[in-house]
Design goal:
60s Ribosomal Protein L30, Chain: A; Phosphoribosyl-aminoimidazole Synthetase, Chain A, domain 2; 2 domains; PurM-like_C_dom; alpha+beta; magnesium ion binding; six-stranded mixed sheet; single chain; about 35% helix
């Protein structure tokens, strides 16, 4: 097996049994009918030591914080508000009780920020590397959940903030470790990797608007997440290279091409990327501004076989899904 995403497609159930299920595999989270005026939203993510994190780049507190933040970002992409979480953890002998307490403190910091309750989980031992699996549950107003399959030709492509900062921070951490010396400019990107902020408020705002919106969170890189929107909606996304560059890490010593690569392929920014009509985009920009936030236009949608292109003065370049893929041969 050499492709994570084809494997996922191969295990999608041919049929479902629960009438309450409104949206299953294929988005950032699943949605099923809840009580009264709400739909329930559920997601799960696993983190493996040595694959997703290392203790020389993240403290135990930051590992725990990030583990829950990843799930909260998936809920945000659906327009949902977080409520509960469960934690399953496999602990190796190399982790001390103090480190584990700090890890759970990190999750608690995110839980406190969004009013989430820890309601269960499982704890087991393992020989080698720590494995952490977090399930998050949220809710969204009935019928208002946001999905990837709503993009249409003529739409604006937008993001909710800077992209590529986490990849830049990870590269700096790989070079110097988490106890290394960083300039103020560099420290900004280090923290983007270590302590990402899910865009819950922005996702909620978009879900509350009376517009068609396609949305995805940027966990595996802007190019990969844009391709997921394109495939789900059967359209093409064209990204403006200059606009992507303007939102990429502004590190003086780094060439523009590398900054764009960080933005397209780096991942773990946990901003949101989406599409909507031009008129809806203008209206949502006004609402975002009233809330002290911004939406950034970075491209457009057109008809065609699902694909993503990067447009510049010299033409268009087809982008590949080159974000993180667990089973890709390296």
């Amino acid at each position: 097996m050499d492709d994570e995403f084809s494997f996922i497609r191969s295990i999608v159930p041919r049929e479902t049994y629960q009438e309450r299920l409104t949206h299953g595999i294929g988005d950032d989270a699943a949605v099923y009918t809840g009580k009264d005026a709400w739909d329930e939203v559920v997601c799960v993510d696993a983190m493996v030591e040595g694959v997703h994190f290392r203790k020389d780049t993240l403290s135990p507190f930051q590992i725990g914080r990030k583990a829950l933040a990843i799930n909260v970002s998936d809920l945000a992409a659906m327009g949902a508000v977080p409520q509960f979480y469960l934690v399953s953890i496999a602990i190796p002998p190399s982790w001390s009780a103090e480190e584990l307490t700090s890890l759970y403190d990190g999750m608690r910091a995110i839980g406190d920020r969004y009013g989430m309750d820890l309601i269960g989980g499982d704890t087991v031992s393992i020989k080698d590397s720590l494995v952490l699996s977090v399930t998050a549950i949220g809710r969204v107003k009935k019928g208002c959940a946001l999905f990837r399959n709503q993009a249409q030709p003529g739409d604006v492509v937008f993001v909710t903030g800077p992209v590529g900062g986490s990849a830049a921070g990870l590269e700096l951490l790989d070079q110097r470790g988490r106890f290394g010396a960083f300039t103020e400019q560099e420290q900004r990107y280090v923290l983007m990797h270590q302590e990402p902020v899910p865009q819950v408020e922005m996702g909620k705002m978009l879900a509350e608007q009376p517009y068609r919106v396609a949305l995805n969170d940027i966990s595996d890189g802007l190019a990969s997440e844009s391709m997921e929107l394109a495939e789900a909606s059967d359209v093409q996304l064209v990204l403006d290279k200059q606009k992507v560059l303007e939102l990429s890490p502004q590190i003086d010593s780094v060439l523009p091409e590398k900054r764009v690569k960080w933005s397209l392929n780096g991942g773990e920014d946990f901003q949101l990327v989406g599409t909507m009509s031009d008129s809806a985009f203008s209206a949502c920009c006004e609402v975002a501004q009233q809330q002290g936030r911004r939406l950034y236009k970075i491209g457009f949608v057109r008809a065609g076989e699902p694909a993503v292109f990067l447009a510049s003065d010299t033409g268009e370049q087809a982008l590949q899904m080159s974000g993180y893929n667990h089973f890709k041969r390296r």
